[in-house]
Amino acid sequence: MKKVILSLSVLAMLSACNNEGTSAEKIEDNSALQAKADSFITVYTNEYQQLYYTSAKAEWELNTHIVEGDTLTSQKAEEAGEAYAAFTGSENNINAAREFLKAKDKLTHLQVKQLEAILYAAGANPAVAADIVSQKIKAEMEQTKTLFGYDFKIDGKSVSTNDIDGVLESSTNLPERLKAWEASKEVGKELKGGLVNLRDLRNKSVQALGYDDYFQFQVSEYGMTTQEMMDLNQQAIKDIWPLYRELHTWARYELAKKYKQPVPEMLPAHWLPNRWGQEWSSMVNVEGLNFDKALEAKGAEWITKQGEDFYVSLGFDPLPESFYTLSSLYPAPADADYKKNNHASAWHMDLKQDVRSLMSIEPNTRWWNTVLHELGHIYYYQAYSTPQVPVILRGGANRAYHEAIGTLIGLASMQKPFLVQQGLVDENLEVDTIKGLLKEALDYIVVMPWASGVMTDFENQLYSENLSKDEFNKTWWELKKKYQGIVPPTERGEEFCDAASKTHINNDAAQYYDYALANVLLFQFHMHIAKDILKQNPHNTNYYGSKETGAFLNSLMAPGATQDWRINLEDNLGEEISAKAILEYFAPLMKWLEKENAGRKVSLPESI
Ligand code: X8Z
Ligand code: ZN
Predict the structure, then answer these.
(1) N or C: which end of the chain has fewer CB within 10 A?
(2) Which residues are documented as binding site?
(3) Which residues does the annotation say bind chloride (predicted)?
(4) Looking at the structure, do residues 397 and 413 belong to the same domain, yes or no?
């Protein structure tokens, strides 16, 4: 049975509005209308925050303790999710917000923003589609349990995703790599039915409030149309394409040498050091900049503390004690009777001070970067949890901003002057700057055709074009080839669902372009910090201890979602979103790659 939680006070307030005639235009006096809007928003906020927290706690439990056969935890999460959905999607709330917005000229900017956010929240869970919403919540829980409860196996032996990543990062044995890669994709088969069902439920739930499809709904949070978002992403790919093309050529020749194989036209997926071929940086070891050994000696706990110390040095507050006591930061013990979500995330549980992260930190460079990324989200949460930012607007300027901060700190944390100061590398070691740039490009450039191309194109087709389930894998691999120049090691028929092996396809649907746009933005931020604030070489910075840098980051984050992101960017940088900065940063590498690849056969087309 569906529970409908709607506080008496909201109902009372709404009926008061109704008694006076709902048409807001009738009310001449701005301040009277603003006072009414305020009381509606206040009552809404209190209920919202409480339901959000209850639902977040139940979801947290579901993601951190997945026990086979346990139905109670998911039942609780479902109930909490349904209560949240029933409230945010209630007709009363939708009608009230719409009614107030009819007189938006008479309301304050913050009120309009909040009312729009209330409508957006309703868009995902409208009561008019209550049955669909309820099915969607159940299906999402099931998908989470299947994905993260999955028992990955190599040669019949259970392995963790950290184990699989380890093989793909370091093994030179192709049959061993193939097994690890194939093992990582098996979960997709189990998820395909759920994905088909979720696609339909997600689409139907947002269509009830007038959105065309779920992709359009997600994009609308940026104040953009689907076409505008697709164009922005296609432009980003076009901008970095010449550099990606050189990296692709370089990687084909490099890996062929490493595995003692003929140079392939396209990159076989199991040759790459990542399950999806989205980051290749571990292909390069920069003498002097490899601090895996140092991290191993320091341990996983040290990484989190050191990450926090970096942010504190910029002027941010230390993390609340509850972050450490309530987060789930390390892998479940090998003999644990539960599994946990193995993909890193950061949670703003109560939209106030209860901030947590879910990770499986191991002491290596990959996790060092991930810790800094997640702490970026946490510090963002803290930056806008202030009286100036209403609870309903405690989100990023846009979602890409949220993804950008921690990745920016990750970029800064890998530059030599910072590492020397941390005692992680030796000051006297000569560092090959171009190799350093190459290593960075293998993450920051390589992820672009994946994020803006494969993921975004696939999800647009999935949701907006209702991609046939008989063509999921065919389409997936066509896009992998087109955008990334990656091919499957063996035939991958429709019994597989390789897209579904990616977490976000299942439970962060239709928003992966966030990461691509974050990359573009973070280089704009970095160039500004390096040149205008630190007055340092952008390839050799040390942010540590720079309060001015902290203040700049804070000015990006502190307004939360109270301001349009384009205005925030204009105010802070005086520019629009643009790939100019990322291209400028990697310009010296482009020259080096052109020389290095001279005479080599290039297989990607000149333009995309
Ligand atoms: O999902 C993440 C973060 C959590 S927001 C760890 N990232 C993307 C991915 O892993 O696919 C960070 C970079 C891209
Ligand atoms: Zn993130």
Answers:
(1) N
(2) 222, 373, 377, 403
(3) 222
(4) yes
Residues 6 or more apart whose Cβ sits within 8 Å of residue 315: 547, 550, 551, 554
Query: For residue 214, how far is its CA from the centre of ligand 2 (angstroms)?
Result: 21
CB of 373 within 6 A of ligand 1: the answer is: yes
Find out whether the beta carbon of 572 lies less than 6 Å from any atom of ligand 1. Answer: no
Q: How far is the CA of 592 from the centre of ligand 2 (A)?
A: 31
Nearest protein Cα to ligand 1, atom 3: 344
- Ligand 1 centroid–CA 507 distance in Å is 12
Which of 147, 148, 162, 343 has the most ligand 1 atoms within 8 A of CB, as the residue to mutate?
Answer: 343
Task: Indicate if ligand 1 lies below 6 Å from the C-beta of 357.
Answer: no
Last residue of a domain, one of 140, 167, 185: 185
Tell me the whole-structure pTM to 2 decimals: 0.93
Mark whether 312 and 176 lie in a shared domain: no
Q: Would you call 525 helix, strand, or coil by DSSP?
A: helix
- Contact status, residue 93 vs residue 122, Cβ threshold 8 Å: yes
Q: Which ligand is nearest to the CA of 378?
A: 2
Q: What is the Å distance from ligand 2's center to 402 Cα? A: 7
Question: Distance between terminal CA atoms of the chain?
Answer: 51
Torsion angle of C-alpha atoms 53, 137, 331, 405, degrees rounded to 10: -60
What confidence score (pLDDT) does residue 28 get?
A: 54
Structural domain includes residue 234: no
Residue where one domain finishes, among candidates 98, 128, 148: 148
Which residues belong to the annotated binding site for chloride? Answer: 222
Annotated binding site for Zn(2+): 373, 377, 403
Task: List the structure tokens of 554.
Answer: 């804070």
Residues 175 and 123 both lie in one domain: no
Tell whether the model's pLDDT for residue 27 goes beyond 80: no
CATH number, domain of 461, equals 1.10.1370.30
Q: Does ligand 1 lie within 6 Å of residue 345's CB atom?
A: yes
| 441 and 314 housed in the same domain | yes
Q: Which domain holds residue 110?
A: 8-148
Q: What share of the chain is helix, strand, coil (3-state, %, to 5)?
A: 65, 5, 30
Residue whose C-alpha is closest to residue 505's, from 236, 66, 187: 187
Question: What does residue 407 show for φ and ψ, rounded to 5 degrees?
Answer: -70, -35
> What integer pLDDT is reported at residue 7 of this predicted model?
36
Kindly report the protein residue whose alpha carbon is nearest to atom 14 of ligand 1. Answer: 515
Residue 220 falls inside a structural domain: no
Would you say residue 359 lies in a domain?
yes
The predicted structure's pLDDT at residue 6: 32
Q: Checking DSSP bridges between strand 157-158 and strand 267-268, what pairing results, if any?
A: unpaired
For 202-228, the pLDDT digits (tens) are: 999 999 999 999 999 999 999 999 999
Q: Any bridge partners for residue 268, and if so which?
A: 487
Q: Do 525 and 469 meet the contact criterion of CB atoms below 8 Å apart?
A: no
What is the spatial distance between Cα 402 and Cα 406, in angstroms, rounded to a whole number? 8
* Same structural domain, 434 and 552: yes
Q: Kindly identify the ligand whose nearest atom is closest to the C-alpha of 406.
A: 2
Examine the domain organization and report whether 470 and 359 are in the same domain: yes
How many angstroms is it from 565 CA to the middle of ligand 1? Answer: 21
